Amino acid sequence: MSQDTSLIRPEIAALADYNAGLALDRFRAVYGVEARAKLDSNENPLGPAPAAIAAMRDCAAGIWRYPDAADLALREAIGAATGIDPEAVIVGNGSEDLIGAIYRAVLRPGDRVVTICPSFGLHEFGAQAFGASVEKVHFAEDWTFPLPGLVEALRRPARVLIFSSPSNPAGPAVSLEEFSALMEAVPQGTLVVFDEAYREYLDPALAFDPCAIMRAAGLDWISLRTFSKAYGLAGARVGYGLCSSTALTRALRKTRNPFAVNAFAGAAALAALQDQAHLARTVALARSERARLSAALTAAGHAVVPSQANFLFFRTPGPAADFAEALRRRGVLVKGWQEPPFLDWARVTIATPDENDAFLDAMA
C-alpha cells in the first residue's frame, strides 16, 4: 500500500492528534481489566433523562426515513428555552461539528484567531487546518480570567475570538464584568465564538446572559452549547449555536453536513430539553462532588484549579501522560493534558461518589 503523503495539505499533516477519551470497550481490550471509573471525557454519570431514551426507542420504527434537514422542532424548542429566534439557531453533530462549520464559513489562509490557554483543542486545531494562525493567551497564575491579555491581543486584526467558559480544561468562568469589558474591546469584523458547553454547571451567582451583552455591543457572535454534558447525550452528538443573525445561521447550514443531527439524536435532545428536573439532579451531584474531590486533591498536596464545570484540572507529580497511564492500569481513566506548558496537569471528570472514591483510592 502506498505511503505517499504528498497529497495531504501541510496544514493538516502538522496538526496534533485530538486528545480524546478512551472508549470502554477499547480500554478493556488494551488493558484487560474492567474500568472502575471512566473520568476522562466529562460525561454525565447519571446518563440522559429517561424520556430521552424512550424517545430514541419510539423513533426506531421510522428510521428508514431521513430526518428533517431543517431541524425545525428542535430549533423551535431551543428558541423557546433561550429566547432566541429559531431562525437564528443552528444545530449540529455536537458543538465540535459547529466549530468546524464556523471555521469553514469565515476563515481564510493567513487569518488570525485569538483564544485562551489551556483550551479545548479544536478551538486551535480547527483554525490551523484552514491555514489560520492562532494566538493563545494564558490564564493568570492564580487562574483568573486573562482579560488584559485578550484585550491586548485584540488590538491587532483578528478574524475570530473563541474561548470557553467555564473553561475546558481548567474550569474557571468569566465574570459578567470581565465578559462585558472584553466585548467592548472586540473590534468590528471579529466574530466572537463563545463556547458554553458547561454553562449548566455554573453557580447561579456567576450566570448571565452573554447573548444580550454581545448584541448590545453590536458584534457578530455565536454562543455554542451542547446536549453532550449536563443533558447526558454525549453518544448522540447534538450541539447547537445561538447566532447574532439569520445570515450567519444560513451560512453555517451550508458548511455543516445537510443532515447533521440524526433522527435518534434529535428526538433525544427534544425530550431531554423538557426534563429540567433531571438536569437539576445532574448539576446538584456535580457541584457537591466537585467540592469534595477538590478538597481531597488539595489535602493530598495537588494544585487544583477552582472549577465551575463537571471536572477538575490538577497538577500531577510528574508527566501527566505517565500519571494517566498508571491510573489506567488501576482501572481509572483520567485525561493527561497534552498542551504545553501544561504537560504535568490532568483533568478528571466529576462522577458518582463511588467512581470518585475509586479515583482517590487509585491515586493513593
Automatic annotation (TrEMBL):
<feature type="modified residue" description="N6-(pyridoxal phosphate)lysine">
    <location>
        <position position="229"/>
    </location>
</feature>
<feature type="domain" description="Aminotransferase class I/classII large">
    <location>
        <begin position="38"/>
        <end position="361"/>
    </location>
</feature>
<dbReference type="InterPro" id="IPR015424">
    <property type="entry name" value="PyrdxlP-dep_Trfase"/>
</dbReference>
<keyword id="KW-0028">Amino-acid biosynthesis</keyword>
<dbReference type="InterPro" id="IPR015421">
    <property type="entry name" value="PyrdxlP-dep_Trfase_major"/>
</dbReference>
<keyword id="KW-0663">Pyridoxal phosphate</keyword>
<comment type="subunit">
    <text>Homodimer.</text>
</comment>
<dbReference type="Pfam" id="PF00155">
    <property type="entry name" value="Aminotran_1_2"/>
</dbReference>
<keyword id="KW-0368">Histidine biosynthesis</keyword>
<keyword id="KW-0808">Transferase</keyword>
<dbReference type="InterPro" id="IPR004839">
    <property type="entry name" value="Aminotransferase_I/II_large"/>
</dbReference>
<dbReference type="InterPro" id="IPR015422">
    <property type="entry name" value="PyrdxlP-dep_Trfase_small"/>
</dbReference>
<dbReference type="InterPro" id="IPR001917">
    <property type="entry name" value="Aminotrans_II_pyridoxalP_BS"/>
</dbReference>
<protein>
    <recommendedName>
        <fullName>Histidinol-phosphate aminotransferase</fullName>
        <ecNumber>2.6.1.9</ecNumber>
    </recommendedName>
</protein>
<comment type="pathway">
    <text>Amino-acid biosynthesis; L-histidine biosynthesis; L-histidine from 5-phospho-alpha-D-ribose 1-diphosphate: step 7/9.</text>
</comment>
<dbReference type="GO" id="GO:0004400">
    <property type="term" value="F:histidinol-phosphate transaminase activity"/>
</dbReference>
<keyword id="KW-0032">Aminotransferase</keyword>
<comment type="similarity">
    <text>Belongs to the class-II pyridoxal-phosphate-dependent aminotransferase family. Histidinol-phosphate aminotransferase subfamily.</text>
</comment>
<dbReference type="InterPro" id="IPR005861">
    <property type="entry name" value="HisP_aminotrans"/>
</dbReference>
<dbReference type="GO" id="GO:0030170">
    <property type="term" value="F:pyridoxal phosphate binding"/>
</dbReference>
<dbReference type="GO" id="GO:0000105">
    <property type="term" value="P:L-histidine biosynthetic process"/>
</dbReference>
<dbReference type="InterPro" id="IPR050106">
    <property type="entry name" value="HistidinolP_aminotransfase"/>
</dbReference>
